[in-house]
Amino acid sequence: MDDVDLDLIDELCSSFCTPCTSQNTKNENDTNNTNESLLSSNRKRASIVNSLENSKIKKVCLLDVSNRSIADEYDEVSTLDESALQMLCEEWEPKSQFPTLLTRVAGLLEKYRNIQSFHNWQKKCLDLPARRKNQNLIYTLPTSGGKTLVAEIMMLNCLLHRHLDAIFILPFVAVVQEKVRSLQPFADELGFHLEEYASSKGRYPPIKRRMKRSLYICTIEKANSLINCLIENRRMVELGIVVVDELHMIGEGQRGAILECLLTKVRLLTPQPQIVGMSATLANIDDLLKFLDAQFYEERFRPVELEEYVKVNDIVYKIDRNNFNENDQLIEHRRLDFKYTKQHLLNDPDRLVGLVSEVIPNDSCLVFCPSKVNCENVARLIISFMPEKLLDDNREKRSILLETLVEVNEGNLCDTLKTTIPYGVAYHHSGLTGDERQLIEEAFLDGILTCLTCTSTLSTGVNLPAKRVILRSPYVGSQFLTFAQYKQMSGRAGRTGQSQTGECYVIAHERDMKQLREMLFTVAENSTGCDSHLATNNNYAIKQLLLNAISLKICSTYESLLNLLQKTLLALQADRLNVNLENVLDECLQYLIDTKIVHIKEEGQESNDNSNGKIKKHVYETTKLGKATVEGSVELGLADSLYNHLAKSLINMNLENPLHLLYITIPFDLPNITIGFRQLVDRMQEMKNEEKIVLKLLEIDETFLHKKAVGLPAQQKVSKETMLRFYIAMILYDLFKNKSFYDVAKFWDQSRGVIQNLYSQAASFATSILYFSKSYDEFWPYHQLLPIFIQRLTFCTSLEILPIMEIPGIKRGRALQLVRAGYRTLRSLAKAQPNDLMKAVLNLPLRTAQILVKHSKRLLCEQAEDLRDQAAELVENIE
């Protein structure tokens, strides 16, 4: 671990942090005297090492400036000190019937979630032997039934009673970010660390905590990297529970294969942390139970009853799942009576607006559309039928929503949202930025918006229930709807406490009915959706699993690697999937050897064994390239190319501006984006000479670009990949110059969400490069350059406002205002008075100023605590 600068601790904590009190007066006085003498001296890093024998130094390193979350006069927050935490551990699980939540936790659930009691199924699930004995558990329940709360209680029990860390695995970055926001008040008040592992965020290895435990909220890929890191550093003993949301994703492509690899590694360790998996849709449940050695709990409970319908032309059929007669499973229910003119029918032949108008504006409605373009078109279609009197509903709140959206877009907003939001309608898809999606989601939950047109990704994202869910078509993109997708979408129907039933309508044509019936009834009974994907894509995931196991020293021999594969879900399904594990192992090991990622350390003669026949005695270990591949979580097929790319870029690296480094960090697996040569030429005409040096380094001919811009034939000297990576680097370079997302997206003719996704991918790939390069001494410049550059990529902004972009919810426009007003650091904001802040920054409300000060204090104290924990680790085990 790097040396810790104690001066920095003092600087961070001075002015507003209060030292904690000790129960032992003598120890308190000794510590205070030591602290005062050290504060008055001018300490240097070298002095830490030279005076380690002095026990007083150790006391200072271990001294907590504050064991409490920062409380200010605007939002009083108190947290558990060490003695209260010990009492919590003793009282958390009394002998009386579980769950008996502490009054404090119950109060937080009521305050932040409006939860006053558990459902009966939740009590039963939490009282299972598997839960009590910390054994593996899989449970399934319809969407909106309260699955996540049970998992959160288990994680709180692990953090506060068992005093162990927890990992919560979620499917998407946006869901991770939403869950971090949701759990932050609990972390503040109950005294545990909440750490986000998504995109470029996450520390490897995580800080070793002395007092508080950590809850890691991760995407699947980041969780895999975190598990690898904990295994490598022999810190898995700190981990008590791994919770997997949407466990059914184990059967979905390469991301499912990564999840299977992760769980296989966890299962192989001793002691093994508890594994808890949950989902609304699980198939092959027997295979999953054997794979995880888990108990199973299933409940059909829905807080709101679901009614399912299919609409064909103007006839609505009700789905009867209790009837096993094929001819009676769809019962004619009613005809739509919405009054259409001939022109209206031409515009809306599927009578979608008729279904929507039955529920809005008094209730809420989600319309799932097959594509992003269709989302926006449907939103405009709906408001074209709406009477103008709807403009009076929530007029003031919708105006505020529009103003806020304009603010997060730094003065801009798309025409569709400008037109639809006054009617209470908006669209929601990946073309929006994260800030826009969050504001629209919150407005929908608050009833400011009553109808969202969205893509299927919303069904696996944040919880947005509605009275009625409408599937615009039984297709997702060009693919027919699967039963799992239908379950996820229909599960959004019904709002607890606001209606007794939820409704799901599928709009279909006669030509779709045969396939739709099969999906709704036949596939529902015979789904095999949780099949292993380890052996797909040319056994890619198996190769990655073997490399991880060898690099982390989990396995090193042929026998142990074969045993590893026999612990996978694939092994349980091998016969049905027609996979021979030994043949696959031989093939994958040979690939790793041929690509110089793994080599044979020792070779011995094959020996006979009475039970197993011939056993191969090879011992495998990773090469430097293999270790770098694991450290950087780099795809196997890209490892050698990445090394060559970094080596070549290092020879003539240009650091006069960020453009060349941006190019270096653009991922290899590029999105399908058409290069806009006209925009590229326009931007190049604005470039300075020092910026154009990058063109020469990449051997990009300006004449070629000019010809392509005007549609003339031209011979390209560089590869298409190089050209595309430079094009994306130029887009991100605009953001580095503090240009707004809206302006950048408009100029380059890309959606705002695509632009945001590009810089998120670049930040993530830059993180991979950082850890990949640490295995090579010759790549030391990347070690020095990338940490701060990754921060810039994370927020895609200039250096001047970077220090305060870490504040939750702050936007670049507001950050620029604060910097120009003299608030350039977290510390300056933490020391500020909200009234002074409000006067110094134009249009800054008092409440926002209070929140900025509060968050700055919290972040600064977290940084100080991180440094204290690092200091404690530095002097650990030193007499």
Describe this structure in words.
The chain has 879 residues and is α/β, with parallel strands linked by helices. The chain has 5 domains: 6-71, no CATH class; 82-298, Rossmann fold, CATH 3.40.50; 306-525, P-loop containing nucleotide triphosphate hydrolases (Rossmann fold); 540-622, Arc Repressor Mutant, subunit A (Orthogonal Bundle), CATH 1.10.10; 636-856, Sec63 N-terminal domain-like fold, CATH 1.10.3380.20. The chain is 49% helix and 11% strand. The chain is built from 39 helices and 21 strands. The chain has an 8-stranded mixed sheet, with helices on both faces. A 7-stranded parallel sheet has the order 3-4-2-5-6-1-7, with helices on both faces. Strands 15-16 form a two-stranded antiparallel ribbon. The chain is globular and about 75 Å long. It starts with 5 loop residues before the first helix and ends in a 5-residue tail after the last helix. Residues 1-101, 524-528 and 610-614 have low confidence and may be disordered.
- What's the number of domains? 5
How many runs of DSSP E, i.e. beta strands?
Answer: 21
The CATH class of the largest domain: Mainly Alpha
What is the terminal-to-terminal distance?
A: 18 Å
Mean pLDDT: 82
* Low-confidence sequence ranges: 1-101, 524-528, 610-614
- Percent range for helical residues? 40-55%
- Report the portion of residues in β strands: 5-15%
Task: Write down the overall geometry.
Answer: globular
> Main sheet, how many strands, which sense, barrel?
8 strands, mixed
At the third CATH level, what is the topology name of the largest domain?
Sec63 N-terminal domain-like fold
Number of helices: 39
- Our Rg estimate from Cα atoms comes to 29 Å
CATH architecture of the largest domain: Orthogonal Bundle
Strand line-up across the major sheet: 10-9-8-17-14-11-13-12
Structural class per helix/strand content? alpha/beta
